[in-house]
## 1
Amino acid sequence: MVLCLGSKEEEPLDEYDQLPFGLKWRMYWAKKETDPRTGEAVLRLGNNRILKTHCANTEYQALMLIDRHTSVPSYKVLAVYNRPEGKLVEYEAYPGKPLQECWSSMPAHLQNKIVSQVGRFVEQLRKMQPPKQCVVGDATLGAALDHRFGSGRIGPFFSIEAFQEFERRGHSVDDFPEKEIQMVHAPKKPYQLKFTHASLCPQNILVDDAGRVTALVGWESSGWYPEYWEYTQMCHLTPKTMGDWLDAMCRVVPRYDQELACEEALRARYSGSIYDAPRSVRAPSPSPSERDAEQQEIDDKNTSDTSG
């Protein structure tokens, strides 16, 4: 509400969130840290409390979604503040060591225990139902943030085919001689959407000394992707020195080896940074009848039973 004194018009009230006094006090005394995984500035508010500054909404929205629908261990979002300097997010953070640092020194029975846990967590994520069919995007079906495609946001894409066409930089499938691209990106190939961590690698798995996974971190790239995306991203992000971990994971998550070969062929052609540039070649625009048919297909899938 705008208050007026005489004929003088006051400025609109600040639309940014006010920080609670208690939080300001804790921030003043907080220990400043740098996340070794991302380089982000983090304030340590207490043993299990951290505050992230300039936090990507793709991360905390994904964490809130999986907290509601799964038992996957992850940081808990306690509060989100919209501030002039960006989003401030307070988390309940669980302690643990990155698996990458301790895997090689672990006995085999603890390694097997960790792999089994991560496999069950991936299964829970894949059982989640998308709020809309066909849409490839972040947890809320908005633009995704995936460093596979440069520094900017991508999408959302209103079909898996549109996402694949973006991967090809607008080129037709017939422009690629690689048979894996032709087969995986074939028109109307039936892939399902699955909720995907998209950075499932040992660096983003925190564990304790008893072989318990305390948290999966690194959710900023997560979202609704084609069903093979978790597998192909996991294979690319796992360090070569941890091939035994990757081999073990391939036994507990669905494998998509043809899709992996397709992604390798596309990565060989297009580096991540190239997606920051405008596309020089685009697929032909669909005719009005083709657009109507595609929209009708999406509407048929998005019934009252599938819409969020």
## 2
Amino acid sequence: MLSCRKLKLEENVAKIWPEFGSNGKDIIKAHHVLNHTSGLHNALVDFGAENPMEIADWDECLRRIAVSEPEPEWGQQQVYHHTSFGWLCGGIIEHASGKKFQEILEEAFIRPLNIEG
């Protein structure tokens, strides 16, 4: 059974994902990520440009997000996080649960729905 501590929208992401708090991101809250105002829409924009398979490296993507700098400053502008949203949410979920995101997906969806492949 999937268990995870409850997150609050006003909670600082760095409180649950300490590495995330670098480069001015220490006061970005969960709601900034969810409503696309964290300023991290470009966090992965150039990653994988030379080798598209690089973007499949989950841990490297999380590391790059953790060291990225928001632009514009968080909370100032809503910009769709097209290249980073999945990793941002997945990183928060991993750090809140203490489990890898793949494991959570398997527990919550793949096994209950008997999905193969």
## 3
Amino acid sequence: METTYFQNHRKLSQKQARWKEFLAEFDYTLEYKLGKTNVVADALSRKTELAALSLAKGEIKGHIKEGLEHDPMARELVNLYSYGNTKQFWVEDDLLYTKGWRLFVPKWDNLRRDLIRECYDTR
């Protein structure tokens, strides 16, 4: 097992000490990864933001659904899906999705700007 600061540090909080004791049962190596290459941790750190957006903002889904009707590109993608002419987009629960279960946000009103503001300008 590799020697690291966490494993050799003498002054640990109670919570850190419990984790150290628990982790002592396993054979593992702590390894530093540069932030740009550690995309999994980045995605996990944003999980609460995404959950808050999807759970607390039910009206946002309504705006997205409404926007799909007003955005010509979105309407075209929905038509392609309904005729079976695309495998990159699909409709579920009246929302348009693309690869990786990413939600398509239409260009309508100020919807995209409002979503960006909601995700990045709030605590």
## 4
Amino acid sequence: MSKILVTGGAGYIGSHAVVALQQAGYQPVIVDNFSNSEESALAGIESILGVKVPTYRIDCADATALRGVFETENDIQGVIHFAAYKAVGESVAKPLMYFQNNVGSLLTLLGVMAEFKVHNLVFSSSCTVYGIPDALPVTENTPTKPASSPYGRTKQMCEDVVRDVSAAPTNELHTILLRYFNPIGAHESAKIGELPLGVPNNLVPFITQTAAGIREQLTINGGDYDTVDGTNIRDYIHVVDLAKAHVVAVQRLLDRKGSETVETFNVGTGHGNSVLEVVQTFERVSGQKLNYRIGPRRAGDVPAIYADATKAAEGLGFKTETSLADSLASAWKWQQALAKK
């Protein structure tokens, strides 16, 4: 049973990846400082799996603490690196914090991995590296342009770091960069899901909290974009589908199937939906009427982006399985479960 370290493993995507890894026969190990996650996620993971997953409450930027994990778990075969700040708007307001955390933690992790001769990395990247693309959908060969936010720039910088490390003559690192789009939804058990601390930065939890009466009104950030209805278009992928992409990426690394030391894959549905389409689909599947208004544009947002998912299908054997409607239904089920806790 291969042991896989999962940084940010108590977070939204990380927790679902931990479940998917365990169910696929791997032994996940969680590292999380819980700065942007809740310990309740651990109980949800344990309830789904029926076992406790080894968990270390440390910061990935703390090299000494990270070494301690690698020493204790002395047969780690690979790492999935989720741990990062991820809010576009917050990154515009606090760019230094984002560069220190997102880039700094990767540098520390790569150094410790090299010390312990762990040579397999799945890196959590983002479609934000494409900036404002000239054409849609974006492929892995779409040129990366200046990112629209400091968050996007941290992902670009991290990808550059990985490529430069991999180009070194003594390099043994093999990496898969997963550029994913907009994860939504929750596990079918409603025991884990997206649990933002404070006011949500992402669309779907703001929708579900508005429907639940936690938020008075949903503000849609911009209604004058050059899109089908004036609102942003994004590629919304169910979080469990996304988690499964990480599992197949890990296996590809362990099997050394890639011909290059760094491979890049878009992970999305291949289809774009506008914010208004998401709102209307949620209203239909939940039976809830949302109180929303069109507000000003948000700094750092691109008008539209969605994936060409061909390479992931051919290279990873990965395709999404869950519709937008089912994804939103699972998010509402999760919100209702939270209300009962």
